[in-house]
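Hi U.,

Before I forget, here's the chain from the pilot set. I'm dumping it here mostly so it's searchable later in email.
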Amino acid sequence: MHWSRFLTHMQFFADRFFNEKLLSSSDDFLYHQLAGRYPEATATAERVRSHIASTYSVALPNEEVGYLALHVQRLLTS
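Structure:
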């Protein structure tokens, strides 16, 4: 089930990314909560952020990285 949700998230993320409609909010609450509670998942999401920045020259907002970290955490605990 968690893999299915992860893949669905990645499909929607790719759609937002390539259509230049990334989630972006001035409220970083979710990101900071996840970073504090799930540092390993957040570190993984941060590596994805770095890869995308170096490959595509696009800065992912914290909101996108937070949601990715949430899905990674679900995979780590399943």
